[in-house]
Write a structure and sequence with these properties.
Blueprint (H helix, E strand, L loop, with lengths): L2 H23 L13 H4 L18 E10 L2 E10 L5 E7 L11 H10 L2 E5 L13 H16 L4 E11 L2 H11 L6 E4 L6 H15 L4 H12 L11 H4 L6 E6 L7 H15 L4 E6 L17 H11 L12 E3 L20 H27 L12 H36 L4 H34 L6 H23 L8
Parallel strand pairs: 3-4, 3-5, 5-6, 6-7, 7-8, 8-9
Antiparallel strand pairs: 1-2, 2-4
Length: 498
């Protein structure tokens, strides 16, 4: 058998081993079942026309900026208030995920103020809130401070001062309302009512289905999610929802790709039932996305009017007509929102980070070692069979660049999927092309590892006597790549079929 044939056999055997190891090391597959369709949601009554009747929204308003001290920091807020005499209902806006600022609510806060509602928007805290650590209770305390500011105003009816929350904000608002009777009502927009990890996994699955992505793409992404150890991802919103005693308005869009709106509604109604609260109104708005807009543009028809009529009409609008607590366009949710299987200990964030760090150290150590040796005037080429080293060094460098390209392509691929999900854009050829590039790079790195090991073994047999620095370079580069290969195997990059 020729040397090339031996290398081909060795590569194929190692590929099969890595595929098997990846399968054996993997947690259970993420395979959300189909959601059984409830008759309730298949035949919703139409939204009562009185709820979205036109609302005059041309009254003059005053705009005021204030600073509100909260725990550990101070937040800037903008209050918009009608100049008309008397006390008005009031509402503070609570942001969704990310480092939101009050500017994102300017249009609807201004519209509502001109319609007769005092509105407060505020910058989200950055102290105690970041990508890894999210304390929803701390955010709820901030929201309560804003309600306190509103209730003290002479132009606000303190009984009708409430909170509005969208997406992540709808996990925050119920906590605040459960903590204080001062919250007179809550408006929940695109409220997930399932854990963050379930919501993200559901949205990811929907997007990948739309893009006709291979099943292995979903496995890679959900395995990555399962290894993330952020405590807030497992947050359960139901206990707070069960403590809501005041009127609730929940609004969902039928074109929202980000949340399982049917299950979210079921959890909300069940929790409110346990709380003995029948003062709730749930509306599905046709064509609305996660932000209650049409394809990211204008607000969907009836959104602002429904909200204004409900708030201004309180307490009379707290309980809708009999049989119309849930109404509007027909929502369609195909899959259940299920948990992503937790990653085993060896695939957790800490272990994965350690493996990638060791790989990076191996890749960086080689050129740094060579540079240091040269600066010290040492000879990199030992006398015995020194001609072997340049060829081995070239192989090591190519292997390192392939490893770096693989990591970069995986990160770019994940960012591409996230970008497609956020913008509800993208095409399946881009996903398939990106996945193919990742798989080809993984196999190329495997081939380079095998051929480099073979070159090193051949050199040793020919009498090569590497120096200490060369031994270190070879060991770190081959070892780092081996770690990367095992990591790639866990994430299914050597899985069969392709």
């Amino acid at each position: 058998m020729s040397d090339r044939s031996r290398l081909s056999v060795a590569t194929g055997a190692l590929l099969a081993i890595l595929a098997t190891v990846g399968y054996m090391l993997s947690p259970p597959s993420f395979d959300p079942p189909r959601l059984s369709q409830s008759q309730t949601f298949q035949s919703l009554p139409a939204q009562p026309a009185a709820e979205y009747r036109p609302v005059p929204h041309n009254a003059p308003i005053a705009v005021e900026e204030i600073s509100v001290p909260v725990h550990g920091t101070t937040l800037t807020a903008t209050i918009r208030s009608p100049r008309t005499p008397g006390r008005h209902p009031a509402m503070a806006f609570v942001q969704g995920s990310g480092r939101g600022d009050r500017g994102e609510f300017t249009s609807q806060a201004t519209w509502l103020a001109r319609a007769g509602v005092v509105t407060l928007t505020y910058d989200k805290r950055t102290v105690g809130y970041d990508f890894r650590h999210r304390d929803f209770g701390l955010l709820a305390d901030d929201a309560l401070r804003m309600v306190e500011v509103l209730r003290k105003r002479a132009d606000v009816d303190p009984v009708r001062a409430g909170l509005w929350g969208v997406s992540e904000g709808s996990w925050v608002v119920p906590i605040a309302a459960a903590r204080s009777v001062d919250v007179g009502f809550t408006v929940l927009v695109s409220s997930p009512n399932v854990s963050p990890v379930r919501q993200v996994a559901w949205a990811l699955n929907e997007q990948l289905e739309r893009l006709h992505a291979p099943a292995d793409v979903r496995e890679l992404l959900t395995k990555a999610m399962g290894g993330v150890g952020f405590n807030f991802l497992r947050y359960d919103s139901v206990p707070a929802l069960k403590q809501l005693k005041k009127p609730v308005l929940a609004l969902y869009g039928t074109m929202d790709p980000s949340i399982p709106f049917v299950e979210s509604t079921q959890k909300l109604t069940s929790a409110l039932g346990d709380a003995g609260n029948s003062d709730y109104t749930i509306r599905f708005l046709r064509g609305a996305d996660h932000a209650m807009r049409i394809h990211g543009g204008a607000f969907t028809r009836g959104y602002l009017e429904t909200m204004a009529n409900w708030i201004i009409g309180l307490p009379g609008t707290a309980r809708p007509p009999a049989g119309a607590q849930i109404a509007g366009a027909t929502p369609v949710q195909r899959y259940e929102a299920t948990d992503v299987p937790r990653a085993p200990w060896y695939a957790g964030t800490a272990v994965l980070g350690l493996a990638l760090t060791l790989t990076a150290v191996g890749y960086v150590a080689a050129p740094v070692t060579e540079m240091v040796v040269r600066l010290r005037g040492r000879d990199l080429l030992p006398s015995a069979h020194s001609e072997s080293w340049p060829a081995i060094r070239r192989r090591l460098r190519r292997m390192a660049w392939t490893g770096v390209a693989l990591l970069a392509s995986v990160l770019a691929f994940i960012m591409l999927i996230v970008l497609f999900s956020v913008n509800q854009a993208g095409a399946w050829p881009a996903v398939l092309s990106g996945w193919l590039i990742i798989r080809v790079l993984a196999v190329l790195m495997l081939v380079q590892e095998v051929t480099t090991v073979a070159a090193v073994v051949t050199a040793f047999r020919a009498g090569w006597e590497p120096g200490r620095w060369q031994r270190f370079t070879v060991a770190t580069m081959l070892g780092g790549t081996a770690l990367l290969l095992v990591t790639a195997a866990y994430y299914g990059l050597f899985g069969i079929p392709w």
